[in-house]
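Interim report, section 4.2 (structural modelling).
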Amino acid sequence: MTAVLKVEGLSKSFGGVKAVNGVDFEVAPGELKALIGPNGAGKSTCFNMLMGQLMPSAGKVYLKGEQITGLPPRVIWRKGVGRTFQITGTYQSMTVAENVQMALMSHHRKLFSLLPYAYRLFREEALALLDVVGMADQADRSCAILAYGDLKRLELAIALSNDPMLLLMDEPTAGMAPKERINLMQLTSDIVRDRGISVLFTEHDMDVVFAHAHHIMVLNRGELIADGTASEVRANARVQEVYLGGGTLYAAEGSHA
Amino acid sequence: MGLFVAQLLTGLANAAALFLVASGLSLIFGVTRIVNFAHGSLYMLGAYVGLTLMNTLPGAFGFWGSIVLAGLVVGLIGILIEICVLRPIYRAPELFQLVATFGVILVIQDLALMIWGAEDRLGPRAPGLKSVVRILGEPVPQYDLALIAITPFILFALWWFITRTRIGILVRAATQDREMVGALGVNQSWLFTGVFFLGAALAGLGGAIQLPKGGADLLMDLNIISAVFVVVVIGGMGSIPGAFIASVLISVLNVFGVAYIPQSTLVLIYVVMAVVLTVRPYGLLGREEKAGEHGQVGEVERPIRPVGTRGRAFVFVLLVVLACVPFVGSSFLQVLITDILIFCLFAASLQFILSSGGLVSFGHAVFFGGGAYAAALLVTYADTPMELALLCAPLGAGLLALGIGWFCIRLSGVYFAMLTLAFSQLVWSLVYQWGAVTGGDDGLVNIWPSAWLSGTTAYYYFTLAVGVGGILVLRHIIHSPFGYTLRATRDSARQAEATGIDVKRVQWLAFALAGTMAGLAGGLFVFSKGSIFPNELEIGKSFDALIVVFLGGVKTLSGGVVGAVFMESIKDWLTRLEYWRLILGLVIIGVVIIAPDGIVGSLRKLGERIGLLKEQESMR
Amino acid sequence: MLEIDGIHSFYGKAHILNDMSFSVARGEVVALLGRNGAGKTTTMKSIMQLVRPRSGSVSFAGTDITGLPAHKVARLGLGYVPEERRIFTDLTILENLEVGRQSPRAQTPSWTIEALFELFPNLEERRNNRGKALSGGEQQMLTIARTLMGNPSLLLLDEPSEGIAPVIVEQMAKTILKFKADGLTVVISEQNLHFAKMVADRAVIIEGGAKKFDGTFQDLEEDPQVRDAYLSI
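Predicted structure of the assembly:
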């Protein structure tokens, strides 16, 4: 089966400093894969290159076998990649439903239409997506007054609106309470299972990573130093040295099972 | 060869004053993130204060002492402005700050008029530097050579101050994160005041030091500010070496322009700017501004809905009342309402791009005037019938907006604002200097409507239909998918890009649409007046529109229209007063500080408080 | 040492802190726990007067500091290390430290650049590098060092472990415990319970802008209701 996402020799330098250096990996269909590593290791740079926000210095990115390297974000989105951000970027002046409707208008190519009232377009479809993430009851609230965790769920609904085959989630649970983190990642896992979507996410909460990721990649100083299952990565001496440390900062193995 | 060198030296000498003003503006912008529109006014004050001092203090010591003292006095005035006007609004959105400094311009204009009178003043010549030196056979004033010698010292002193002193370090730190500097124990409000003092003093010095060359007059504030904007935009905002390079570049170009292509000097400068910005959007030495880097505190715009039955009924009744005016009102009233309607459409078009698009255009009059000129030129040179010419007004303005927008849309925030201003100046200078075609300062006259619209009442109904129609079309578009898409690009460009929206393209088209509507207003205008002059596309006209949108309420849909009605209604009365600029300036500053929601926003809040309107769900 | 009494803080219309009270004794390390949006950062900022509480009071070492400008609060010996580092990226490490410099004060550990370089050797190597060239962990060290240049007697650390490799966080825990041994009072806000437990004597749990729990970590573990409501994993 072709990998949904395949990355070959991805590199990026900023003024001579190699932020990402020769990274290769694949994401299989239906896989929930985590990318971890210390701050400044190149995770965000990597993500921004996958989604087209940054032009790689070298290397190729393939989506279902098609090369998408260096395409602008909006084009990559139209090819079926959804993205959520570490700091949410929803439209503050719109209601919850309108935020999803906006993405649907884009998906259905109605952006330049001048005649209809926008608030009536694709409302049913938007409500259905909000229902998936459990936000339908808040559809008509202003986005500016949402609680943080609800914003994250809204972002997920927006990311689903173009029926993506791949979701890129940048620190999806940053800033949430432990319980909310578990709920959001559970929701994401369910969506992955139900819709056959693949997910690549970065994360700092090792508890979340070890509990939900099928596979984990570790990035350090721009290079991939590990790519494997949770227990393989935990046992990796190099990963322990540069990243995980003595294990005092996350739950012991199996405590989530 | 001799002439060439002499001209080069004149250019370098002229760069001195320009650099002083531009570096002051850049310094203030770097730290406070405020583009001080009133910086030209400080320059003018420097000239007047310097002149007064030079007339009292004797000799060479008196001359140079006056220049330094003028700098200090203007610096102190700067402190006054900083404390009274800017301190309360550091956290306000940038448009509010710009409008407030514009209020300061008006106030200073009238104060200068009161104190020094309307006459232009000649500056004294510098004692001991009154004669000329022959260089390669060409006469070069000694004072020019003195200026050329002084400027590098000022540049070096500023550089040393910024990079080598503790205060310089604090200033640079505050440029990046004012709050954090405060949290580390630095009294940042005094740091700001100090920077403002320094920046204002530099402008004052610039005004005083150019006295022997240029004298003092009441127009020098606005004359220099567009040149200064060009300089800081070319050099890069916040970069003092950039300001130096650009000052020299512009001054030298200007001198050679005057010598070799006198009819298009102004045009030349703006063309250079356009070229530089095409290659380097943030100027020669400028640094890319990341969106949201200087996050601005302000109330979030609210979700919108088309007006309900009550609102529609209200608009209908209003239209009926307006339709009845010719039966009861004088023809003077009809003309007044015609003017108001045209201005309302113009303001609504600005509000569209400014509020829904979040793009603060400072040169919107160029499309109003552009549309008017498009129609007028067609009538004058091609005998085009009025109906067709009027149709070409929005088309011409729309095309102009597509062209200007292509450059401007690549930038955002204050860069966008300054670029739109500079481009509107480019068009203005083109119209102004290309007298053979545009009539220059004499304008184009005898542009009258067709016979069926020649009566005051007929044209009144025509304007009512087209003007109101245009406003309603704009309003509908705001509620359409395109309007929503535009708001999406304003709320979060990143999210929009990540969900398939071509942000720049949407902004570009919206900019063109706003320009088209402004052009329609301009077309209506030219046929109602029968003539058009370059002042209709000047900075002042753009500011008029900004101010009414602002007075009406930026974060509303109808602010522009309401503000325009308010302003045009009182203008006739206001401008009869001797010092109306002073009053208007103070009102603007007052509104910025006390009622930033504007008329519509304030009424809405009042309505919510007394229970007439449903209150928005409060945050969290 | 620090007394927060019934403060209410707002961002615009948003009511963030709702009658928040707690106190910190000299030499203590207290952890503020709670999710994002619970009010931890606003509590920190309200202590520093970066956000002015609308009502209630904050007093520090016996002085009422409510409504003082932030720089005066800092000069009294409150050191604030913000979330997201906020180092001055265009300035070198040495210049960053210069911004934080204040004169030494009585009864508090005094810091010199040399002592700070000893504590954070990475920073010394890169003393003339600009802030933007630093890694996330180095930036966090610089933020702390910069605040220590002001010789604070109480350190407010807002989410020091956020976004940092566990291995660096472990080092940071040691550093904080060293500060405590030197007599510094520390308030940290945290989402990582493991880290908080390593360094803090006491936990204050914040939710919805108000205090929901105040006690030792042992009390916390023995209180299943609180544990499940705010910390449950």
